[in-house]
Design a protein that fits this description.
This protein is α+β, with helices and mostly antiparallel strands. Among the domains are: 192 residues, no CATH class; 147 residues, no CATH class; 143 residues, no CATH class. 59% of the residues lie in helices and 12% in strands. It is built from 25 helices and 18 strands. The strands form 2 sheets. Strands 9, 10, 11, 12, 13, 14, 15, 16, 17 and 18 form a 10-stranded mixed beta sheet that branches. Helix 5 links the parallel strand 4 and strand 5. The chain is elongated. About 3% of the residues have low confidence.
Length: 833
């Protein structure tokens, strides 16, 4: 053991002589760890928030009751069921707006009747308050999680104000509550939310029986049939994980490149150490300790950077999950032991993986290693062929799996199709990265022969330039592979997002064609529609209903539309049977693309729909796109829905067409005449703007991580070029001695980097298009349920090439300047060795 400390000092002395390599190695580890740890911290925070939300509401042990007619629940339902011996508990839920503009979900619970599964986690059972009254007595208590209180700046005993000036009950900070959610007594919640006697849900223990005397009037929603918190957004978080892993791989390419360069300079030292008696085991142990030390330092610093990155991105992720999936996530980052262990563990594992080559050479170093440098090129060719063969096999495997995913859903992929889609993408990316050195070598070889046409002197210089470029491939291949991955990922993701934006905006223009949308109370719908029909003779008024039902055992939304030429024109269909709208008028239905994939249904199939009139077996007349909706949905003719559901069930909206010039006047009149609030009316531009905001927010995080990954890849190439300076000096010294100027050598070196970057960018173009197709045809379909058309943007392709050239110009310029300014004395020193 004591002999290993001098050995470790000897090994680390290399970095004292080459601090740039140490900086590059640590930088790669830190960047890889920061990007991966940041994403994992976000995902861990989201999972923790979802687990708290699920446990607070009883998880899979608490069912819900709703009237079979779909009407609003009130206290009479609660009293009736309790008198019948049913152990239900009322729940009031709503959003409150605070004085500072923040919103908060408010839950009102009835403590004495709370189901046992909710009592320990809600943090309100069997507790008496200490703030001037109990939980169930004025002034009540407002309980919320520590992270929520911290984000809002609240402390114990505070009584914050609402936007209307009313004060909330005294704050009590309680662990295990869901984020962005406050819990209080049902009486206080009903008053704060202006609910009167209305309640939002009746909770029932899953094990409790529903007596036949009341079972007919209520529909029981089993806990197992609902979506658990976080289930809808699982695919979104999986996409973040995939981007984090890609960033980790690209960052570790920097580490591998730096260690490979250091290895080429340390083989002689390894051989000397072996020659003076250092055992193979001791040498490997010393290198392993070095790797672990560097990895630990980089992992800790990377974890700190990851927390900072998560703190920067977390508010955007929380807003995305809230607006798109209606799922609450704490906006403040709290570092958990799991996130720490995951970040440190993956970064250390990646560092050891990147250093495997160094360990292997340390274990098998030959005492006569310096005499075998002539065989380096031959070994590089053999290794390049092996990597190319492995890359071809990975690409073929990915294409085979892609073909299987495009076929009918098979049992062997059931439940794992999204993971399989990511494996396809990973296979294409990694296979292409492995194949890149061979492709670059082949492309440069093809350029050598045409170079002979430029005259003897110029041809000799060009041929040497190309041949010398080939010799640099082994040392630059990892950095170029990182650039290839980042460029293709950037191109694929940008193409997918751009195509989605085009498709989404076109779809919005068709679906959001009305000039004004009105959401009146159920009791006012008929009067408002009658008044609009009488006052706006030139306008078209459509009544639309939104309901809840089940398709088989799966909860779905129901949309009811009038079947007229206006609806047919603005409701594009993806697949249909013959004359679909005629079938819809006769009682058939349409389903969105998400539900069709979930249930494996197609036009012409039958669907069982649960209604107050019983189960209806309905023909599917067509499929329609429903971008941004995480739920399955069916669309019926309005007349058919009115037959199956009472008119006071669900929500009803009125859509006005042909009132573009005076929609604000109509909204003002409705507000004055019928007492409608501004929240119940929205014009088409505002609604479209809101939809676009949700879209931009959804992909903001992906774009940010994508840009960071591209930046890391550019840094990988730049750092590799800077670290190659010492090796390149030995290669160029003989040419300088033969009469070539340092200016010519500097420009030649910059040209070589430009050539390699240009070839890499050109190879990234087809890979980026293939990745774009995989994202829209595989990832989107499996993650979100909808398929997008492929869009290729020529300006994005050109932009990717320009980015690669910009990186090459920056790196080539720096290396050229260093060579240009190099004193002749340093070039002469190369002839000593």
């Amino acid at each position: 053991m004591t002999a290993r400390f001098p050995l470790c000092r000897t090994l680390l002395a290399h970095y004292r002589r080459h601090p740039g390599q140490l900086a590059m190695t640590l930088l790669g580890i830190i960047l890889a760890g920061a990007l991966y740890s940041g994403v994992q911290t976000i995902n861990t925070q989201a999972r923790d928030s979802f687990a708290r939300a699920e446990s607070m509401l009883g998880g899979q042990q608490v069912d819900r009751l709703q009237p079979a007619t779909g009407q609003q629940l009130d206290q009479d339902d609660f009293v009736r069921l309790r008198r019948a011996g049913v152990p239900v508990s009322p729940l009031v839920r709503g959003e409150i707006t605070l004085a500072d503009g923040h919103s908060l979900t408010l839950l009102g619970l009835d403590l004495p009747t709370l189901p046992p599964a909710m009592q320990p986690d809600a943090g309100v059972a069997n507790e008496t308050g200490t703030l001037g009254g109990s939980f169930m007595q004025p002034p009540w208590q407002l309980r919320l999680a520590p992270d929520s209180a911290q984000a809002l700046g609240w402390h114990e005993k505070d009584r914050p104000r609402l936007a209307d000036g009313r004060r909330l009950p005294p704050v009590v900070i309680q662990s295990h509550l869901a984020p962005e959610t406050a819990v209080t007594d049902i009486a206080a919640a009903a008053a704060l939310l202006d609910r009167g006697h209305r309640i939002d849900a009746l909770l029932l223990p899953h094990s409790a029986e529903l007596p036949p005397t009341v079972a007919g009037g209520y529909q029981r929603i089993n806990a197992e049939q609902g979506l658990a918190p976080g289930e809808l957004s699982a695919s979104f978080r999986l996409n973040l994980t995939a981007m984090g892993l890609l960033s980790l791989v690209v960052g570790l390419f920097i580490v591998h490149s730096a260690m490979g360069l250091a290895l080429s300079q340390r083989l002689e030292s390894f051989a000397v150490l072996r020659a003076i008696g250092v055992s193979r085991r001791a040498l490997v142990t010393g290198v392993l300790i070095e790797l672990l030390g560097l990895g630990l330092i980089g992992a800790v610093l990377g974890l700190a950077g990851g927390v900072a990155l998560a703190d920067l991105l977390m508010p955007g992720v929380a807003r995305t999950l809230s607006s798109l999936y209606d799922e609450r996530v704490a906006g403040a980052v709290i570092l958990t032991p799991h996130a720490i262990a995951s970040g440190l563990g993956m970064t250390l594992l990646g560092t050891l993986t990147a250093g495997l080559t160094t360990l292997r050479h340390a274990a098998g170093v030959n005492v006569l290693a310096p005499a075998h440098t002539a065989f380096e090129a031959r070994g590089g060719i053999k290794r390049r062929r092996q990597l190319a063969l492995l890359g071809i096999m990975m690409i073929l495997g990915a294409l085979l799996l892609w073909w299987a995913l495009n076929g009918p859903p098979g049992d062997f992929l059931a439940g794992h199709r999204l993971i399989a889609a990511f494996i396809v993408v990973a296979g294409l990316l990694i296979g292409s990265a492995l194949l890149l050195p061979a492709l670059l070598d082949g492309a440069i070889t093809l350029l050598i022969r045409p170079a002979a046409r430029f005259g003897a002197e110029r041809a000799a210089a060009l041929q040497w330039l190309l041949a010398d470029t080939r010799t640099q491939l082994p040392r630059l291949s990892l950095a170029l592979a990182a650039l290839l991955l980042a460029l293709s990922a950037n191109l694929g993701v940008s193409g997918m997002v751009g195509g989605f934006r085009m498709t989404f905006l076109d779809w919005l223009d068709q679906r959001l064609a009305a000039d004004l949308y009105v959401h009146p109370p159920a009791a006012s719908v008929v009067d408002i529609q009658r008044w609009l029909d009488s006052q706006e003779k030139s306008a078209t008024v459509q009544r639309v209903r939104q309901l809840d039902s089940k398709a088989g055992d799966r909860p779905v939304g129901v949309r009811a539309l009038p079947i007229d030429t206006l609806t047919q024109r603005r409701w594009p269909l993806l697949e249909t049977i013959a004359v679909p709208w005629q079938h819809l008028e006769q009682g058939s239905l349409l389903i969105n693309e998400q539900l069709a994939r979930q249930l494996r249904k197609a036009p012409g199939d039958s669907l069982t729909l649960t209604t107050p009139k019983g189960r209806q077996h309905v023909l599917i007349a067509g499929l329609y796109a429903d971008y941004g909706n995480p739920r399955g949905e069916v669309t019926l003719a309005l007349a058919q829905a009115d037959q199956w559901w009472p008119t006071d069930t669900g929500t009803t909206s009125l859509m006005l067409y042909g009132v573009t010039d005076h929609r604000q006047d109509i909204a003002h009149t409705l507000q004055q005449r019928f007492g409608l609030s501004e929240e119940r009316m929205i014009d088409q531009p505002s609604l479209r703007h809101r939809a676009q905001q949700v879209f931009e927010r959804t992909f903001a995080i992906t774009r940010a991580l994508n840009a960071l990954t591209l930046g890391v890849a550019a840094l990988a190439l730049l750092s590799s070029l800077l670290a190659l300076g010492r090796w390149r000096r030995a290669q160029l010294a003989p040419l300088w001695a033969m009469g070539l100027t340092r200016r010519w050598l500097a420009l030649a070196s910059a040209g070589q980097i430009l050539l390699l970057s240009l070839l890499t960018a050109l190879l990234a173009l087809p890979l980026g298009v293939a990745l774009n197709q995989a994202l829209v045809a595989l990832i989107n379909v499996e993650a979100f349920g909808w398929r997008l058309p492929l869009h290729v943007f020529p300006l994005q392709l050109l932009g990717s090439v320009m980015v690669a050239l910009l990186v090459a110009v920056l790196g080539g310029t720096l290396t050229a300047i260093r060579l240009w300014r190099m004193p002749p004395r340093q070039l002469l020193e190369e002839f000593r060795s």
